[in-house]
Design brief:
Length: 251
């Protein structure tokens, strides 16, 4: 796998069902998407693509991409699998790292670790473990061949919308690896922005840890929140898989 072209693809659209325009919400004076892109740049990959839709409502995502000096791709709204596959083809990706634009605390160390495991283990797909990593630092890595198989064979709307679900549901078709997080912090913590209270929580974290042109990491976030356990009450009560479960109901 060494020497293959590694491309990060960040999916982004503005009309979120739960929190419209969340990817453009300001954190420290910059759009949430801006922070995702700038943190993703620290992955050290060959290219970064913001994959948004062809609709006018998503023109602002393109503007943010240009401001961050990264490339963009415009594709289908709900068939995000097709959007990823077409973007991967257009930009000659051989290994794809998937990041979502609602994760402004995405951790470059985690992205690098997922890629390293993928490259060393001859996997089709490697991802952060949902049980040990907080929601919001999710990173997935997969080969172009894996996403092509999904693109050809996935029929359910949920599998087309959630990009990799066809892969991780078919463990006999794909060699799958997981990256596990070791922490002595056992309280549930959400670092994804799906709701207003998630955004409030993330803004407080940025207020405490952000410094211009510097990156803070998941361990920093955990350490900071440990001393402020009352903040965890801000964004409790949401199912971490509610978006996927909503899609399943519509299949």
């Amino acid at each position: 796998m060494k020497g293959k072209r590694v491309v990060v693809i960040i999916q982004a659209r503005t009309d979120s069902r739960r929190l419209p325009k969340k990817v453009l919400s300001k954190i420290k004076g910059k759009p949430l998407l801006w922070h995702v892109i700038e943190r993703t740049k620290r992955f050290g990959c060959d290219d970064i693509i913001v994959a948004t839709t062809k609709r006018k409502i998503d023109d602002e995502n393109v503007s943010v991409s240009k401001a961050c000096d990264v490339k963009f791709f415009r594709g289908k709204k709900n068939d995000v699998l097709d959007r990823y596959y077409q973007a991967a083809i257009k930009f000659n990706a051989e290994i794809i790292i998937r990041v979502t634009a609602d994760c402004p605390l995405i951790d470059p160390k985690i992205g690098q670790a997922v890629l390293k495991k993928f490259q060393k283990g001859n996997y089709d797909y490697v991802a952060t473990d949902d049980e040990t990593y907080p929601k919001g630092v999710d990173v997935e890595c997969f080969s172009l061949n894996s996403i092509k198989k999904s693109w050809l064979h996935a029929k359910l709307k949920s599998d087309r919308e959630h990009v990799t679900s066809f892969i991780w549901k078919n463990t006999k078709k794909f060699k799958i690896g997981k990256l596990y997080y070791k922490s002595n912090f056992t309280k549930p913590i959400r670092l994804v922005v799906d709701h207003k209270n998630d955004l409030e929580f993330v803004r407080k974290i940025y207020a405490g840890l952000y410094k211009k042109n510097k990156i803070f990491f998941l361990d920093d976030v955990i350490g900071w929140v440990k001393t402020r356990p009352e903040l965890l009450e801000i964004n409790t009560g949401h199912d971490p898989d509610e978006g996927y479960l909503y899609s399943l109901k519509n299949d």
